[in-house]
Amino acid sequence: MKKKINLQCILLTFLTFTMGLSQFIIIGIINNLSTDFRVSIADIGALVTIFAIVYAVATPIINLSIGSIALHKVMLFFMLIFSFGNLLTAIASNFNVQLMSRIITALSSGPLMSTAVTFAAAIAPQRKRAWLISWVFSGFSIASVFGVPLGTWISDNLNWRLTFWTIFLPQSLLLS
User: Fold this and answer.
1) pTM score of the predicted model
2) Distance, CA of 167 to CA of 6 (rounded, Å)
3) Which residues have CB under 8 Å from 145's CB, separation 6+?
């Protein structure tokens, strides 16, 4: 039982790490995106704003519509959408495709985060519940502290698309 909870904790923390990285990395690679898509830094900054608005507005609406669907099915569904959004980000050929990919990612990130926390609470024994939930939330902090600087380095020294491939590929492996 303990090994199962630890594995689930690692997977849920990794999930929130990739969600945090996907959300926060745009700021770290803003110059590279601006150059690649030949748009202003302000236009790239709008990707962050639009993501935040979609995330804030859509999350409660989508969460209310989930109802009594099994948590694992909800997580799987939103992980698929999240993965697709990051794949689309990685292969975006122009700014409009990039914008659409960020909207798709935002639509899935909020419900996925709330489902991950709910799933953590459901699977953990009472005495481990707070511990597991805190680890799930820590994925965002780990992404901010370690993921964004590493993703920015990858973008500056290799290619910004590789950063999104590193988000997409592990997600797709988890889904398979």
Assistant:
1) 0.89
2) 22
3) none
Nearest by Cα to 160 from 100, 98, 105: 98
Q: How far, CA to CA in Å, does 117 sit from each of 9, 16, 36, 41, 59?
A: 11, 10, 36, 34, 14
Give the span between the Cα atoms of 94 and 98, in whole angstroms.
6
| pLDDT tens-digit readout, 48-77 | 999 999 999 999 999 999 878 888 899 899
> Is residue 58 a contact partner of residue 81, using CB atoms and an 8 Å limit?
no
Between the CA of residue 122 and those of 92, 100, 117, 119, 126, what are the distances in Å? 37, 33, 9, 5, 9
What does the alpha-carbon distance between residue 136 and residue 14 come to, in Å, rounded to a whole number? 8
Distance, in Å, from the CA atom of 24 to the CA atom of 86, rounded to the nearest integer, reads 13
